[in-house]
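Re: beginner question about structure tokens

> Can someone show what the tokenized structure looks like for a real chain? I only ever see the sequence side.

Sure, here's an example I had lying around. Input first:
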Amino acid sequence: MFKNLLFVPIFFVSIFSYAQELNCSVYINAEQTGQPNNQVFRILETQLTEFINTTAWTDKSYKNQEKIECNMSIIISNFDSNLFTATIQIQSSRPVYGSSYTSPIYNYNDKQFNFSYVEFQPLVFNINSFTSNLISVIAFHVYTIIGLDADTFELNGGEPYFAIAKQIVNIAATSGFRGWKSTDGKQSRYSLNDALLSQVYSEYHSAIYEYHINGLDLMSTSPRTAKSNIANGINILKGINDRRPNSYLLRTFFDAKSDEIQSIFSDGPAVDITSLINNLNRMAPTKRSNWAEIKY
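And the corresponding structure tokens:
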């Protein structure tokens, strides 16, 4: 769906040692620094790409075709010596059964991403300690990607990975970097992880399972049933919105899914989506332009 890299030795410590789960592309944009061609950015891009893709993050066995497709775009606005001010946009997708289509799962713009880095420094992840904000942020998003992907294949399948991400949050909270504490705002890594593990948002996991397994994965064989099930999955989220209007978790869902939802319900066999449109406008009012384009 949605360069000639330098060879750089990578050293890491992982809590597992069995498989590589991700096929992740890392891009660094340093135009805002005025020094976009500085060697440090290319080296960092290379190291992060190899680190993410060669680390075994879980004890599961992944075939090459099963690896999770994702990309991370890092925009660096300033750097002074080894201190970097940046944001990171993370996106991941999931294959849909019986098609070549990949469905967007995670679309997150992390604006709390300042870090220190020295060229060629070893990239070390240790679940039991904080080594750098760079590694903690990357590891947090890796486990969130894996967790959300697992949720789409098995009901509550992502919970063990969200729990690991929670451990990263807890350890990093003492680092002094932003994004790891409840006081860091409603759009922080802390807030996202807290919602993914909270019973208050439990319907979220049921909804994305229904949406993908009983919805998208049936599209090639039973499109009408699939569309009805996708609508049911989305409507499940109404319970969350009733309790927590404009919740950040729902915003991340619709940031990833709004274009897809518009496309699904603007083509193919017609299904009754009157309540779906009403719910979409209530749950994601910032996406009204998408919902207005749905033809039904």
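Each token stands for a local structural state, so reading them left to right follows the chain. The longest helix spans residues 133-153.
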